[in-house]
Write a structure and sequence with these properties.
Rossmann fold; 7-stranded parallel sheet; steroid metabolism; about 15% strand; about 55% helix; 7 strands; alpha/beta; Dehydrogenase; NAD(P)-bd_dom_sf; oxidoreductase
Length: about 270
């Protein structure tokens, strides 16, 4: 994919992976609309991009709200041009353990339904013009699991499944899809998990930090943009994740037993 001159929306762009993606896309001459509930952070990301010579604007938005998604798309069209690239990056860790009904609603809304709602708005136009690109920022949890947080594990599995479906269903219409699945990344989300005073949350943070090296958001953005250029679906910023995924598929029962041992080890310190 030739990125130069394209228009992108990046949700959750005030910090972390979203911020890094917005900045690196702008460096590739992409015009960027930054969305985030953190209004000041979103505008700061856009201001930093403009200060570096790029083109960016920002809007406070809830990535899971259809009206707010429409507002992001409308702003892009008014200020730049219709959206070519949509980066569904906004995510939440959700409640520890099994959570409540309300917890599940929030986690599924942000980590899954936000992607579905954006696709509903974008795909008809992209099909009509024969092009468009959807980036789903999921997680290694979508290929493996997330200890300590059922909602996060399940919603990220679902996000991967939805991205696969998009790629299969609309790939021949010229719509590209990349699904980003990192292990530990040094972001506010990980920092928030570390700060939760809950045994399951501590387990989750430990599992993330011990699974592989914790990399930077910039590393994830670089891997994602390289995948977009090559129209590659699965983005694995941690190369070792591929072997972990292969082990899971090769012997599911052995993998579950191993994860139980890993959980026990982490709980026992």
């Amino acid at each position: 994919m030739d990125l130069a001159g394209k228009v992108a929306v990046v949700t959750g762009g005030a910090s972390g992976i979203g911020q890094a993606l917005a900045q690196q896309l702008a460096e590739q001459d992409v015009r960027v609309v930054v969305g985030d509930l953190d209004e000041a952070g979103a505008h700061q990301t856009a201001a930093d991009i403009r200060a570096a010579g790029g083109h960016a604007i920002a809007l406070r938005s809830d990535a899971a709200d259809t009206d707010d998604i429409e507002a992001l798309l409308r702003l892009a069209g008014d200020e730049f041009a219709p959206v070519d690239i949509y980066v569904a990056n906004a995510g939440v860790i959700g409640a520890p353990a099994l959570g409540s009904e309300a917890d599940w609603d929030v986690t599924l809304d942000v980590n899954l339904r936000a992607h579905i709602r954006a696709a509903r708005l974008l795909v008809p136009h992209w099909r009509s013009i024969g092009g468009g690109y959807f980036v789903s920022v999921a997680s290694a949890a979508g290929l493996l699991t997330q200890l300590g947080a059922a909602g996060y594990a399940v919603s990220k599995h679902a996000a991967v499944g939805f991205a696969e479906w998009l790629a299969i269903t609309y790939g021949e219409d010229g719509i590209g899809v990349s699904c980003v699945c990192p292990l530990g990344v040094e972001t506010p989300l990980l920092q928030n998990i570390r700060g939760i005073d809950d045994a399951d949350a501590r387990l989750g943070a430990s599992a993330i930090e011990h699974s592989a090296a914790v990399i930077s958001a910039e590393d994830v953005a670089t891997a994602t943009i390289e995948a977009m250029r090559n129209d590659r679906f699965l983005v694995l910023p941690h190369p070792e994740l591929l072997e972990m995924y292969r082990h899971k598929g090769a012997d599911y029962d052995r993998w579950i037993a191993g994860m139980r041992r890993y959980q026990r080890t982490l709980r026992n310190g």
